[in-house]
Structure prediction request, 210 residues.
Amino acid sequence: MALIKLQVVDLFQGDHVKDFKKAADFGIVGVIHKATTGATGTDKEYADRRGPATAAGLLWGAYHWGAHANVADQVDNFLTAAKPDEQTLVALDFEETAGNQMTLDQAREFLTLVGQKLGRKPVLYSGNVIKEGLGAVADPFFGSHRLWLAQYGEPTVQKSWSNFWLWQYTDRQSGFQPNQVPGLPGDDEGNLDCNSYDGTPAQLKADWAS
Prediction:
């Protein structure tokens, strides 16, 4: 069983937030918040939660849910809404999206364009989608991006990576414990995405937006 060190939560507008300071006191080091979906969608809570989270001492990150839309438009939507500074982690959420699935080539283009615009490589969040898309092929492009693995069982990575950087191991309904964070009750159904980072908080801070 992989060691679980809960240090990061990811949120979206459907999650309730009561107290970021309680989460930080509990041991949460960073928050990755949804910023956008596709070419036009935005998360209505992203901007309002950024200040309180950073004021509580938490690292801040932004993710984009990829869709089957013009990639340049998706990149513009993401960067406009996320407003990433040099301390902001940026990530592509590449997962199953029924009827609006981002392709492997679109994911590659999104990561490339964001990397060019920011001068640093985004993190790739994915689970089965990237595993099935790449199959047994070791892809050096994708492998050069840090992997934020979504897997609610014993974690295994696709051949392009030797290990994950961050592991989303539970949404509270499925996966492992610990799966509760003070101050962050989750969504209306009680779901809360929890992520394990296998280093120290200091290492996480150093790695966060690099």
In short: The helical segments are 20-26, 46-55, 71-82, 104-118, 128-134, 140-143, 201-207. The mean pLDDT is 97. The longest strand covers residues 30-37. Residues 104-118 form the longest helix (15 residues).
